[in-house]
Amino acid sequence: MLNILKNLWFEDIKAPVIYINDTAMRIRAGILLFIPLFVSFTLYDAFYMGNYSVDTNTLVDTYDTNWDDQIIYTAEIVKRINDYSIQTYLLLFALFEMIAGMFVFTSRFSILILLSSFLAKNTKAVWKPLIPKRFAWSLGGVMILTCIVFFNPDTFAGFINGLFDKMILPTHYNYIPFEIPVSLFFLCASFMWMEVVFGFCVGCKIHSLLVFLKIIDDECVACNDITQVRKN
User: Fold this and answer.
1) Which of 12, 23, 187, 229 shows the shortest CA–CA distance to 119?
2) Rounded to 5 degrees, what are φ and ψ at 72?
3) DSSP states along 43-88
4) Reduced to 3 states, what is the DSSP secondary structure of residue 231?
5) Is the pLDDT of residue 147 over 80?
6) What is the structure's pLDDT at 172?
7) Helix 130-151 and helix 179-198: axis angle, to 10°?
């Protein structure tokens, strides 16, 4: 337990090339997977279940029919107001986890890294370099940040407009098409699922390709071959 508190999921925090326990990392990904799944249900409810709710207790027969001979009823119809506070807090937590895992120092502030390291303590460690994972979490952070803006368009617009002291983004409607967060949550959930189930890191593969193409200048010895795995 003392070793977990000292090193968390890192092989050696003082080594020139930092390696993390891939088993613990996959456990954390499995826990975080619940967030995009939960928010996906929220998006489905918001966009496909209608913007109005009908109180069936207020239905009254008008004794009239429409052009299709269907009976017309009157009822109390209320426009739904969606509150995304819980979703925003969850996304902020996920964003914090993405950032916290990128560095040794910030990892100590992550409760999920500590928990996953503890849960993986009796499993043989599989060591993989941190740098490709850092790139993958950066991609995840961008996705999460985009979705946070989608759920809070007026807040973000107010911040940007105040920063530049002029109207740059509208504050009376959502300027981000709903297809964007829906697609991002699908991608995010898919990537995390592949990480948890198959140990396949899409972000790491993209990083490896960018290093191979020399778009990213990286000195990490394992970055060019992300399939390289170190085992104790």
Assistant:
1) 23
2) -95, 130
3) HHHHHHS-SEEEEEEEEEEEEEE-TTSPEEEEEEEEE-----HHHH
4) strand
5) yes
6) 84
7) 150
